[in-house]
Amino acid sequence: MLFTRDPAGTVSASFESVELGLLRLAASQLIELLLAAETHALGTSADPALRRLLPDAYPDDAEASAEFRRFTSGDLLDRKLGNARVVLATLGEEPLDEIADEPLEPLLDDRFEVAPTPIALDAVGVQSWLRTLTDLRLTLAERLQMSPDGEQHLDADEAPLLSSIYEWLGMVQESLVYAIDR
Predict the structure, then answer these.
(1) Rounded distance, CA 78 to CA 31, Å?
(2) Could you read off the pLDDT of 54-72 as tens digits, one per residue?
(3) What is the number of domains present in the chain?
(4) Which of 11, 26, 153, 170 sits 20 to 30 Å CA-CA off 130?
(5) 3: how many CB neighbours lie within 10 A of its CB?
(6) How far apart are CA 86 and CA 103, in angstroms?
(7) What is the pTM of this model?
(8) pLDDT tens, position by position, 110-135
């Protein structure tokens, strides 16, 4: 996968089926996480990933943070949800439950090789992708218990997989940034 930009400004890339599945799953899970945030007071979420995605504006002043959140949280959540939905639509959205139940083994088997799937992004799509990739990486960084210096502190069976996904999403994001910067 490598993003390129044509003279008209359209940014495009081709993704392997396993990459598409991973991006769909990640974007779907982000949507589920953000929808869960709508069901309770945002500042009180027990999920550290939500607190990372929707931080307090005034960490040392709970009252000011609550007041700021009262006026901004709905719009922020709507924008994050909208961006993630744009990514899903670009990838050929599938129902969330079908993505989660999809086995990975056939996608990894060489006998089931499928030609890469091209995607094309306009300026709005590029911004949605950049923002969603950032949200996905922030969520994974929290799940991996990454410190500000980038050191991972999660010591669990899923840590190597989550770390690989975090790094891969970073490469996707970097490729997209380079494409629009040229």
Answers:
(1) 10
(2) 888 888 998 888 888 788 8
(3) 1
(4) 153
(5) 21
(6) 24
(7) 0.83
(8) 555 678 899 999 999 999 999 999 99
